Automatic annotation (TrEMBL):
Residues 61-434 form the Cation/H+ exchanger transmembrane domain. The chain crosses the membrane at residues 50-68, 80-101, 113-135, 147-167, 173-196, 208-231, 237-255, 275-305, 325-344, 351-373, 385-405, 417-438. The lineage of its organism: Eukaryota, Viridiplantae, Streptophyta, Embryophyta, Tracheophyta. It is found in: Membrane. Keywords: Ion transport, Membrane, Potassium, Potassium transport, Transmembrane, Transmembrane helix, Transport. This is Uncharacterized protein.
């Protein structure tokens, strides 16, 4: 049964009657049928009932949003762009301008239903944003970010206010607040994703822009609350302000402590049940009702209540259950309503496209001008300020929320609303291509000590230790403890926890403080891991002399994780990056792969590292909790082996440590090989260009110096093994298993082609380890030990690696085509060789069976 008569039809039948201002003032009819019992047999139109039509509207909204998101993915546009465009396409500016489409899918009588869901989406979205808002992070922003955010709020708001009065507007109060607020807000999560995708998040400009966006996001809620109060009755605005402030104080000083008390009473390890989640959702609804009653909006109450949740574990539990449903189902409906309110035809006829372009230009320039003004007291250069201004023009859902609320409050006309929506859309679209074109320089201070070999005797050793899981911590701490930190030669250890970026979480770098005050309860899994890592590094610093530690957490996607590691290494000016191997030893002794993406990260760091790199393989020694006291270096020659020996020499100076250096020397009967002609030519061996004769001179000089410096040191043993082929080398290394070394240090073997390792190239399952490191990573050893495979930093390393990496496939295709039969024969011979080495392992029980010379 209809509630009232429908509005009279429009005189112009060529254009649909879809004026939001008239529609909001009209009395709309509702279908008396919610759904049909007999389906299509009851009537000819199955979309007349409310529920089927409503479900179809949701489906179309989600479908359009997803399709456009996929279509814009190659252009690296954020999801909010696809959602705004999908709403406009379904509105009167595009498909909604077709009368049949509009009457079928979005009839006037059903608009109140979809609008109600859209505003429910706003309340849930505000609650979700409140959960994700970290007020402490806003207060911790640096001086540059505070200066940029201050000018970035004032200038855009003033320009947005001026643009409001230059457009057709009513005399109702409060419209300028919504206009200025929409141009002021910057989407934190959207900007973080753009910065991470364009790989500038770790630059100074990226950090300042991201920190400033936190302030912009928080200020947008202030503008929204003030605009809602201002658009109401002027007689009662002071009561609305007083009651809102009183409610906020009540929440901060009474409600939040009460929630924290309830969480503390939860038994440790019990987790958060569904009762907690339901209680928080009910509390959010009650808070929304209260703020609506005191004169603001249910969104404000939901946002405030979201910020009150005391622990991140509880926040994560709520978000895990609500975020996907809110962003995937509710918010597309909200953007459809925004699109239905946007009318480009009305905007163009009343304002004109030239004025629209001019307004977009001024709106886009507002942030840039604000950032330029901040150079007077922020220390930013003009170039950096322009970059920050461009980046902070990134808009998010919050800008559309402010405009939508202003339209519902009837303080923004259809023309003004449409102009501002188009401005927000264009401003967000152009940020990504401008970021691609403009790559700000990092202005990092260059440092010389990028290797351990070139370090002075009493110089500080800076190590960046990367951690994917808590299993990586014990072997790393054992390695750091073996590094011989003293007051004269200290060690600065930076523990970098690497967290995969999933969902809509922003990429960021978090610096942690000491954890010596204890661990809070009800932590999330990630927080528990972080706390354990901090405790391990704190304990290492407390029980060691001359050690300083710092723990950081980097959240980024695996494709950009290597670059984040290298950028942090440059910033901290480290001499060594320690990476955990992507395989771990199982209880049965086999090496099992944990995450194949970690291998790609390690390879990326090896190519782009600004210093030496070590890949740490744990073969069960960390389970013993015993320090590494029996250390062995397998020396074949080359810069990587020299770096490994330099690090081992530093370790040998620690009391109680015994170092054994085994040099593998080709014998007189060794077969001659062509460095460019053997089948093992790949990027893991011939990745840099080295003069072989000169490098041998370096080896001899380096070893002579090492032997002369350690001649009186009885804790150092030097052994030379004269061998004739790969089989003898393999068996010699396997025979060392009986000596139960705690730690092996080996070079990655770039730039050298030793006849004792050349035939092992085809058998490398992990090329990033080199031939010897790959052999030690196999499951053919019974004792528990760790292996550190070291690559020394060289100036030409990055360009040479990239060149070989890019041409590797073409070179391999050429070699395969020319020597297919020879390679197959070589593989058969190598297979027999490996079997022979395994069978005869017992024949090499000690070094005395070789034609070697031992020096102590």
């Amino acid at each position: 049964m209809s509630l009232s008569a429908p509005p009279p039809p429009s005189a112009d039948q060529s254009k649909p009657d879809f004026d939001m201002e008239k529609l909001s003032q009209a009395v709309i009819c509702f279908s008396e049928t919610i759904y049909r019992v007999n389906g299509v047999w009851e009537g000819p139109d199955p979309l007349t009932p409310i529920i089927p039509l409503f479900l179809l509207q949701i489906m179309v909204a989600i479908l359009f949003s997803r399709i456009l998101n996929l279509a814009l993915k190659p252009f690296h546009q954020p999801p909010v762009v696809a959602e705004i465009i999908s709403g406009i396409l379904l509105g009167p500016s595009a498909l909604g301008g077709i009368k049949a489409f509009r009457n079928t899918l979005f009839p006037n009588y059903n608009f109140e239903i979809i609008e109600t869901m859209a505003h429910l989406a706003l309340v849930l979205f505000a609650f979700m944003i409140g959960l994700q808002t970290d007020v402490k992070a806003v207060l911790r922003t640096g001086t540059k970010s505070k200066a940029v955010s201050l000018s970035g709020v004032i200038v855009p708001f003033l320009i947005g206010t001026s643009l409001y009065y230059s457009l057709p507007h009513d005399d109702k109060p409060g419209g300028f607040v919504f206009s200025g607020g929409a141009l002021t807000v910057t989407g934190f999560s959207t900007l973080a994703n753009i910065l991470d995708r364009q790989r500038v998040i770790q630059t100074d400009v990226g950090k300042v822009a991201l920190s400033a966006s936190l302030v912009y996001d928080l200020s947008s809620w202030v503008f929204l609350a003030f605009g809602l109060m201002k658009s109401g009755s002027n007689e009662n605005i002071h009561w609305a302000i007083i009651c809102s402030l009183a409610y906020m104080l009540f929440c901060v000083y009474y409600l939040r402590p009460l929630l924290a008390w309830v969480v503390r009473k939860t038994p440790e390890g019990q987790g958060h049940s569904e009762y907690y989640i339901c209680a928080l959702v009910i509390g959010m609804m009650v808070s929304g009702i209260i703020t609506d009653a005191i004169g603001t909006h249910p969104m404000i109450g939901a946002f405030i209540f979201g910020m009150l949740v005391p622990t991140q574990a509880l926040e994560s539990a709520v978000l895990d259950r609500l975020e996907d449903f809110i962003m995937g189902v509710f918010m597309p409906v909200f953007f459809v309503v925004c699109g239905l309110r946007t009318n480009i035809d009305v905007m163009a006829s009343s304002v004109g496209f030239f004025l629209v372009i001019l307004i977009v230009f001024f709106a886009f320039s507002a942030k840039t001008l604000g950032a330029l003004l901040s150079t007077c007291f922020s220390g930013l250069s003009y170039k950096e300020a322009i970059a920050v201004g461009i980046l902070t023009n990134t808009k998010s859902t919050m800008a559309m929320v402010i405009l939508e609320v202003g339209q519902v409050q009837e303080v923004l006309t259809t023309q003004t609303y449409s102009v501002l929506v188009i401005s927000v859309l264009i401003m967000t679209i152009v940020v990504t291509p401008l970021t691609t074109m403009y790559r700000p320089s990092q202005n990092l201070v260059p440092y010389k000590r990028r290797t351990i070999e070139k370090a002075k005797p009493n110089e500080e050793l800076r190590v960046l230790a990367c951690i994917h899981a808590t299993n990586d911590v014990p072997p790393i701490i054992q390695l750091l403890e073996a590094s011989n930190s003293t007051e004269r030669s200290p060690v600065s250890a930076y523990g970098l926890q690497l967290v995969e970026l999933v969902g809509r979480a922003p990429a960021m770098l978090v610096v942690h403080t000491s954890n010596r005050r204890g661990v809070s309860r009800n932590l999330s899994h990630e927080e528990v891991q972080t706390s354990q890592i901090i405790s391990a590094f704190d304990n290492y610093e407390l029980r060691s002399e001359g050690v300083t530690t710092q723990v950081l957490t980097a959240r980024s996607a695996f494709p950009t994780m290597a670059e984040d590691i290298c950028n942090l290494a440059r910033e901290k000016r480290t001499a060594l990056i320690v990476l955990p191997f992507h395989k771990q030893q199982s209880p049965e002794g086999d090496m099992e792969e944990t995450n194949p993406a970690i291998q790609s990260v390690n390879e990326g760091v090896l190519i782009n590292a600004p210093c030496s790199v070590g890949i740490l393989i744990d073969r069960g020694h960390s389970y013993s909790n015993n320090p590494a006291r029996n250390i062995a270096v397998l020396y074949f020659g080359g810069p990587d082996d020299r770096e490994a020996l330099a690090f081992a020499k530093r370790m040998s100076e620690k009391s109680g440590v015994h170092l054994t250096v085994i040099r593998f020397v080709p014998g007189k009967e060794v077969a001659e090989i062509d460095p460019m002609g053997f089948s093992g030519y790949n990027r893991s061996f011939v990745s840099i260009s080295i003069d072989a004769d000169k490098d041998r001179e370096f080896d001899e000089q380096f070893l002579n110096n090492f032997r002369s410096e350690t001649a009186e040191d009885k804790s150092v043993t030097y052994v030379e093994l004269v061998l004739n082929d790969e089989e003898e080398a393999i068996n010699a290394i396997k025979a060392m298993d009986a000596r139960h070394y705690d730690l092996y240090l080996v070079g990655r073997g770039r730039g050298i082609v030793s006849p004792l390792t050349a035939g092992l190239a085809d058998w490398c399952d992990c090329p990033e380890l080199g031939a010897i490191g790959d052999l030690l990573a196999t499951s053919e050893f019974e004792s528990a030990f760790s292996v550190l495979v070291i690559q020394q930093y060289m100036k030409s390393c990055r360009s040479a690696e990239e060149s070989v990496h890019s041409s590797d496939r073409m070179s391999q295709m050429r070699i395969d085509n020319e020597n297919d039969d020879d390679n197959n024969n070589n593989k058969v011979e190598e297979m027999a060789l490996r079997r022979s080495a395994s069978e005869n392992e017992s024949a090499f029980e000690s070094f005395s069976s070789f034609n070697g010379r031992e020096h102590t």
